[in-house]
Design a protein that fits this description.
Pfam families: Ser_hydrolase. This protein is of the alpha/beta class. The chain has 5 helices and 6 strands.
Length: 181
């Protein structure tokens, strides 16, 4: 499998109006990493599924994650995998330690706060129901990620009006160019 971009949907598998789904339709070579149970994700199982998807790539992919999948990327980074990625574009990381998180964290706690061993960017909203702005800033700082705060954007998903999301696509394009000058 040749894959420059792996998309990682969050809890409930980003639906048809979500920006990830729009981007996958626009770029059919991009691959959404499958998961067995989107409603009740298990950290260890999902980390193994991500590792298997990365192993199938010809080169080092860029991970494009939303919500809980941002925590998946942080968990994978500390899993001890010998595989490498080019970078991670992390949008609206869910705070699985917050009371607002809608399901059992299923092993995603504690949140890894070690510096990520690859370039990354965190895109955050000022009114996300699943992560407070100060927590999103703290994750970005701990992970060594560039932080982009886009104002009041809810959870930056289809339900918040982020369908095709051309501004996000432009941010991802710039991130990719910076990785491959």
């Amino acid at each position: 499998m040749k894959c420059d971009i792996l998309t990682l949907a969050g809890l409930w598998n980003s639906g048809p109006q979500h920006w990830q789904t729009h981007w996958e339709r626009k770029y059919p070579a991009w691959t959404r990493v499958p998961h067995r149970d989107w409603n009740n994700p298990d950290r260890d199982e999902w980390v193994a599924e991500l590792d298997a998807a990365i192993a199938e790539c010809e080169g080092r992919p860029i991970l494009v994650a939303h919500s809980l999948a941002c925590m998946l990327v942080a968990q994978w980074a500390q899993s001890g995998s010998k595989l490498k990625i080019a970078g991670a574009f992390l949008v609206a990381p869910s705070d699985v330690e917050a009371a607002s998180y809608p399901i059992d964290a299923n092993g995603f706690r504690p949140i890894p706060l070690a510096k990520l061993p690859f370039p990354s960017i965190v895109v955050a909203s000022s009114n996300d129901e699943y992560v407070a702005p100060d927590r999103a800033r703290m994750f970005a700082l701990a992970w060594g990620s560039k932080l982009v705060e886009i104002g009041p954007a809810g959870h930056i998903n289809g339900g918040s009006g982020y369908g095709p999301w051309p501004e996000g696509e432009a941010m991802l394009d710039e991130f990719c160019r910076d990785l491959n000058p």
